[in-house]
Design a protein that fits this description.
CATH topology of the largest domain: D-Maltodextrin-Binding Protein, domain 2
Number of strands: 13
Structural class: alpha/beta
Number of domains: 3
Strand content: 15-25%
Order of helices and strands: HHHEEHEHEEEHEEEEHEHEEH
CATH superfamily of the largest domain: Periplasmic binding protein-like II
CATH architecture of the largest domain: 3-Layer(aba) Sandwich
CATH class of the largest domain: Alpha Beta
Oligomer: single chain
Length: about 290
């Protein structure tokens, strides 16, 4: 049988206080409980640790040797607990974050300097992937996912929403004209995603309903690639505001078919595994993002 923490604490407390009664008061336990713990420890070690007399208790030679080990073990536990408390007060350690390239570039990267100033003891590892990854397989602490969530085994924290719009560069519209209605899109170069196919259903109202299924002339796996293509005048694109707001503000991309566009917003969620207490480094990152996204 293995020695327990309770038995080590009882032994050290008896030695320090000089009696079982005083040790019981120190540990806030019963005298019989401390006595039984001490007896179990001696039985497991198959040796006598303390000589008991009516007046006092003395360490045996074996007891003195074991005391040094017991103190070291209890000290290590105290130090570990203090470090955990310190981490909660000042989060530290490696934090692995995964997100699609556009969200990483346009949302997370600009916030990194401020986050590092607030939490200098956290080391960041930023990973991009256009598809939903297995958090355990990739050893990821937090993943940012845009749109509908499908994995029910993960905890999700909503961070906000982002509207999607149909956009084009002024150069493209000057050369090819602005589409006057949804049907006119068939005469334009449309930029779309390789997968999932749901991203190629644009939120455009008409006789067809509230969505328009496009047939892309150019496909890409990353929204950032499609954004760059649109900026270069390669065609019309449907992208989320979180990656195009700055482009629209400076006039590099303009919205088309605004009156026909339904107000569709993609959910932005932070997902993570949570079996027990959420690590402080993860919790502070989630709070930080939620306050700014």
């Amino acid at each position: 049988m293995k020695t327990t923490l309770e038995e080590l604490q009882a032994f050290v407390a008896v030695v320090h206080s000089g009696s079982i009664t005083a040790a019981a008061e120190q540990l806030e336990q019963t005298v019989s409980g401390v006595s039984r713990a001490l007896g179990r420890l001696e039985t497991k070690l198959d040796t006598t640790l303390l000589r008991r007399t009516t007046r006092r208790m003395e360490l045996t030679e074996e007891g003195a040797a074991f005391l040094a080990h017991a103190r070291a073990i209890l000290s290590s536990i105290d130090n570990a607990e203090e470090q955990m408390v310190a981490r909660r007060q000042q989060p530290a350690g490696l934090l692995r974050v995964n997100a699609a390239t556009p969200f990483m570039l346009h949302v997370i990267v600009p916030l990194v300097p401020e986050f590092r100033r607030s939490y200098p003891l956290i080391t960041l590892e930023l990973d991009t992937d256009e598809l939903n990854i297995d958090l355990l397989e990739r050893r990821t602490d937090v993943a940012i996912r845009i749109g509908e969530l499908g994995d029910s085994t993960l905890h999700a924290r909503p961070l906000g929403t982002s509207r999607i719009r149909v956009l084009a560069s002024p150069g493209y519209l000057e050369k090819h004209g602005r589409p006057r209605n949804v049907a006119a899109l068939t005469k334009h170069t449309l930029l779309g995603f390789t997968q999932p196919e749901s991203l190629n259903r644009w939120p455009l109202r008409g006789a067809h309903g509230d969505e328009w299924q496009i047939v892309p002339a150019i496909r890409a796996s990353s929204g950032e690639t499609l954004r760059q293509l649109a900026l270069e005048g390669a065609g019309l694109v449907c992208l989320s505001d979180f990656m195009t707001t700055a482009d629209r503000e400076r006039g590099a991309l303009v919205q088309v078919l605004a009156h026909e566009t339904a107000d569709v917003r993609q959910g932005i969620n932070a997902v993570y595994y949570r079996n027990t207490m959420l690590a402080a480094r993860i919790a502070c990152f989630l709070d930080f993002l939620a306050a700014r996204v």
